[in-house]
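User: I'm writing a short report section on ligand binding and want a predicted complex to refer to. Could you take this sequence and NAP and write out the structure as tokens? A short remark afterwards would be nice.
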Amino acid sequence: MLHKNNEAVVSMSSLYTLYTLFTISSLYTLWAVVSMSASSNYYSVVNAVWSCLAACFLLAFCVHKISLHLPKRLERSRVYLLFEDLIRYGKTKQQIKRDSWLHVFDVPKRWFWHFYAVSVVWNGALIAMHVNHPYPVWLTDILGFLTGVPLRTISQVPQVSTLLVLLLLWLHSVRRLLECLCVSVFSDGVIHVVQYVFGMGYYVILGLTALCSDHQGAGQGAPEAPLQKLGWLHVGGIVVFIGASLLQHCSLVQLARLRTGRSGTVKTLAHRMPSGGGFEFVSCPHYFAELLVYVSLSLVSGGLSLTWWLVVLYVVFNQALAAQLCHEFYMSKFKSYPRQRSAFIPFVL
Ligand SMILES: NC(=O)c1ccc[n+]([C@@H]2O[C@H](COP(=O)([O-])OP(=O)(O)OC[C@H]3O[C@@H](n4cnc5c(N)ncnc54)[C@H](OP(=O)(O)O)[C@@H]3O)[C@@H](O)[C@H]2O)c1
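Assistant: Sure. The structure tokens for the complex follow:
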């Protein structure tokens, strides 16, 4: 009886989650259509890339949620195993029975720092190029391709929003690099080679996306105000960025302390039940903080850039999927896991 009640609660919460996602997606689509009809750059490659990524992760999230209600025998099918192997990484991979051939694609999760090292170098270089206008021809051509605005002939003005976004992105990458190397305690968890390749390209595209705003602005003949003009959205965005960075850092320190003793020496590589701080509200406060970091970048970029909100949408679905898998892992591993704790966004998801 209790079991059946639990199942009813789980399927109600799944329906609620799907309903929430459906509402968010519908509202977003409505908003996107309205914004697009007002924008001349909505057909750009950069918007298509982020829309596709967001759609892929939303689809993966929905397929995973639905698969929880399918017959158990389907879990042994090759397609299902391949799908789960592609969306999972680290501790959540332990939950599925993986065929031996799938191990060929494993890359150590402790290589996460590679992504941030690439970001620090690449986005540092973009900042230097942004400050020392004009851009080299190859970069102008790439931005022209991404935005659909051929800019070889237009002289651009460095925009304060773009420079700030790039600087915050660079600071975020430096902090994450240091956390990967000096704070986090990694186990022998793995990621898929496809995820690794994706991660290596991710921050390259992200930096170019930041520069695309300049291109779009310049393409419309509307260069932004000079550097000294900081608006309230910039200040608000920076405040959110600092708060989100602190939350993420503290959450990662808490996870590391689950494996270390008082002196800092590693005592175990097991996955233990996190509690305290942001973990009282959600299973993955560091993923929620990641979302806030991107919201802050969107605010700093001016708050009205469709491209940046598409990036935020991608982060919503990407981190929602990872948080959902992590939440399921904790729920199945720890019998005393607090049932009221959300997976990703406090009291919502
Ligand atoms: N923007 C994006 O597209 C994107 C994508 C992915 C990640 N991220 C960000 O990158 C950061 C790290 O992500 P992640 O997925 O690697 O986080 P994670 O799986 O929670 O891992 C973070 C660290 O904590 C350890 N850990 C995790 N759960 C633990 C537990 N229960 N007990 C003890 N140690 C535990 C992990 O070790 P092991 O896993 O090695 O055991 C790892 O060292 C997050 O802030 C996330 O938001 C961003």
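A remark for your report: The chain has one domain: 2-333. Residues 90-91, 109, 112, 184-187, 189, 248, 255, 258-259, 271-272, 274, 286-287, 290, 315, 318-319, 322 surround NAP (CB under 6 Å).
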